[in-house]
Amino acid sequence: MIEINLLPAGGGGARKPSARRSSGSVSLPRVGGEPRIAGLAAALVLGLLFAAYFTWTSGSQIAALNADVEREQGDSVRLEASIARLKTLDTRRDTIDRKIQVIRSVDGRRFVWPHLMDEVSRATPPYLWLTKLAVADDAGATPAAPPPPPRTAADSAKAKADSAAAVTAAGEGPSFNVEGNAGNTQSLTRFMRNLEGSPMIRDVALVTSEQTDVQGRSVLKFTLEARWEDPDPAFVQTLPLVSTR
């Protein structure tokens, strides 16, 4: 029988290429085989995830804060405009209040002198006649010009206080002098008592009195000083200007 050897010559050489192939191949390390490497890899992944999340949340917060800042700036501008309008309205209100107070003080004094002359006429007794009736001091007759508009709250309060003081002073009424002649002392005394009894006259005082001759008769020449007083509404009778009948 004939036998043929198909194996290459040198059987040991057949294993060398296998050895070379095994030495030239690349093999990756197994992660599960090294705990430290696995922990480092997990920490790296978690760090990357945390950094990404922090970046995303920070961006959202910054955007929200920017929106809030823009909204607050818009509100601040609107509030400044509203405050400016309120200050303008306050200034106008103070000016109008002062003008109204002046008008009221003037309007309230329109009938002072007609009432005053009527009261003096009623108080005049027999044997006494008047020669002069004149104002002595009427500080509220000519109201002062309104002051400039106040710039601050303190100026506004001071202006209101000054206006109130002016109105109070105007409400005291004018003082006036009465000159005349009396036939005797009793007539002068009665005249002064009648003036004091009027609800519109107060502070009646005798300034001067002297005996003098008028057309050959001896009379008592006198000068009185008194002040107007706002009467109690109970003593004031008002009538309509136009009859309703």
TrEMBL record:
Pfam families: PilN
Tree of life domain: Bacteria
Region Disordered, residue ranges: 1-29
Protein name as annotated: Tfp pilus assembly protein PilN
Species per Swiss-Prot/TrEMBL record: Longimicrobium terrae
